[in-house]
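User: Please predict the structure of the protein below. I'd like the answer in structure-token form so I can feed it into my own downstream comparison script.

Assistant: Understood. Taking the following sequence of 201 residues as input:
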Amino acid sequence: MKVDVTGKKFGSLTVVERFGLDHTGKNSTWLCRCECGKTLVRSKPNLLRKGDHSCGCRMHQIMKTVFFKHGMIRTQAYYAWSQMKTRCLNKNCNRYKDYAGRGITICERWINSFENFLEDMGHTEKGMSLERIDNNLGYSKENCKWSNRLEQSNNRRSVHLIEYNGKTQSLACWCRELEIPYSRTYNRLTVQGKAFEEAIK
């Protein structure tokens, strides 16, 4: 026996009447009225599926609220905050294993509040990225800074840091500072096995 869902409410949708069958010819479809006044047709499996049922106005209202709440949704700071959450919280993200998988977490103050993140980190310009000072620690005010692509690439775990004259930085930075060819210096270090002092002569 087919179950009549006329008059029942699913989220913001109230079922008005049976409409017909879906494209498969197996599932009944129902004419529904949203709280905003719009009418639409939904299949029974769709109505019974868990979720926030509406014509789409609920999601629009949520996005509108987020946008007007702080007016920063299209800024570099908001993008960095949302990407940080994706890497650490979304298991479907291809970088998840490199972050949450290594125990990289987001501090409680930031995880659910962009306003707190903005208060701690401030605004930044286009092209800047959110960088963790210590790559083995999580995201927090104490362990984060804004950096350009060059600075962030030098802070990757794969970069070999060299200490010289009391200063530590990557080989690329040393070659740039000392105005010497990178490829020649790299060859002397890795192929010839020379010490850094010898390699830069």
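That's the full token string. The chain has ten helices and eight strands.
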